Amino acid sequence: MIPQEELIACAKETLKKQGFKKKNKRWIRDDGTFTCVFFIQGSQWSKEDYYIRPGVYINAVPQTIHDYYGHFHTEIRSDTLSQIFRDTELFFKEWTDKALIKDRVIAFMEWDMRNPLDKRRAGEVDYETDPVPAPLFGTQPYVFQYVIENF
Question: What range defines the domain where residue 127 resides?
Answer without folding.
Answer: 98-150
